[in-house]
Design a protein that fits this description.
Oligomer: heterodimer
Radius of gyration of chain A: 17 Å
Largest interface: A-B, 40 and 20 residues
Shape of chain A: globular
Distance between the termini of chain A: 27 Å
Helix content of chain A: over 70%
Strand content of chain A: under 5%
Strand content of chain B: under 5%
Order of helices and strands of chain A: HHHHHHHHHH
Helix content of chain B: over 70%
Largest sheet of chain A: none
Number of helices of chain B: 7
Number of strands of chain A: 0
């Protein structure tokens, strides 16, 4: 799976975006929307919330790309916008309300070519609270450092480290050889 | 854990999402239309304010002129209306008008130093005619109350 951080956006495309070129905007969307949407969905666990966060991410990126000084830092910049929107979404009252009233821990999204291991990992991730998922995803998948996560969430680095430590323990318990545990966690949630 | 999370597949957003983004971007391309409403409101408020100020200004000026005219009638008695009323025959005047004439005549004779000898003599003659009439009406209680009200 391609991480958002691994994507490469050519400086010429960034220059075209800075000229407010509609074709360049569509090209960037086609290139990066899957990665941005995946990040939002894995953190927020809801199709609607993930689509809203993705939409706001691209709107923000298109509006503010003129202020970007270094074209080569476009992808980390886009990732930061997306992570910020996910974090804001997590704090919004309507999202919290939605999570409280949600019957299942996550909307089910169909993915082709997935193995049983992947399904278990997906369920375990979805069973974590969203405040844990954002730390997990940014640290484990997007390669954020504890300092970057702490800055994004306005928390200390020790908070990020302890979240990762506890999540790792819980995650490792739910091995692929024991999918029933994963299903149990998926149904009943995982404490922070 | 990192490896297993990284293996999770990417998810495709719904095809409508790009349309939503485009729609929002098109809204941004109409800044003039978006900013027109506040400008219209500001222009309306200013127009209303200037109209109100203009109206009040005229009204105040008119009121000032009117007050000045009324006071000038009483103090120096030089307004054409007062001169006209002074020429009216006494029996046609009401009690209040008689008192008004008396005070006006006395005021004009007292304060108007530019009166010609002829005009002054005329006014003194009218005053001599008015004073007994005023004294007569002041003996009537009704007329007295009217006089107090007038003062």
């Amino acid at each position: 799976m391609a991480r958002l951080r691994d994507l490469i956006v050519a400086p010429t495309l960034v220059a075209a975006l800075q000229r407010n070129d509609p074709a360049a905007q569509e090209q960037l969307y086609r290139m990066t929307s899957k990665a941005v949407y995946t990040l939002a969905y894995r953190i927020l666990g809801s199709v609607e919330a993930a689509e809203d966060a993705t939409q706001e991410t691209f709107i923000d990126a298109f509006r503010k790309v003129k202020t970007l000084q270094k074209p080569e830092s476009f992808v980390p910049w886009l990732l930061r916008i997306a992570a910020n929107h996910c974090n804001q979404m997590l704090r919004s009252p309507w999202y919290k309300r939605r999570v409280e009233t949600q019957t299942s821990t996550s909307d089910q999204v169909e993915c082709s070519g997935v193995t049983e291991d992947t399904i278990v990992a997906e369920k375990v991730l979805a069973a974590f609270p969203p405040e844990v998922r954002i730390v997990l995803w940014l640290y484990c998948v997007e390669g954020y450092t504890h300092q970057e996560i702490a800055r994004l969430l306005s928390k200390s680095t020790s908070y990020s480290k302890s979240v990762i430590h506890r999540a790792r323990e819980q995650f490792d318990k739910l091995t692929p050889s024991n999918p029933m545990d994963a299903a149990f966690v998926a149904q009943n949630g995982v404490s922070k | 854990m990192e490896d297993r999370l990284a293996e999770l597949p990417q998810i495709e957003p719904s095809p409508e999402l790009w349309g939503r983004i485009q729609g929002q971007l098109r809204k941004d391309e109409l800044p003039a239309r978006r900013s027109l409403t506040p400008w219209l409101i500001a222009a309306s408020v200013l127009a209303f304010g200037f109209s109100a100020l203009f109206y009040l200004n005229v009204d105040v000026n008119q009121a000032t002129e009117s007050n000045f005219a009324e006071s000038s009638e009483v103090v120096d008695g030089i307004s054409p209306q007062l001169i006209e009323s002074m020429t009216e025959p006494l029996p046609t005047l009401t009690e209040a008008a008689l008192i008004h004439r008396l005070v006006s005549l006395e005021s004009q004779l007292l304060y108007d130093t530019e009166l010609s000898q002829e005009h002054r003599a005329t006014l003194e003659r009218r005053l001599e005619q008015t004073r007994p009439a005023v004294e007569f009406v002041l003996t009537n209680a009704n007329a007295q109350s009217q006089a107090r009200a007038w003062y």
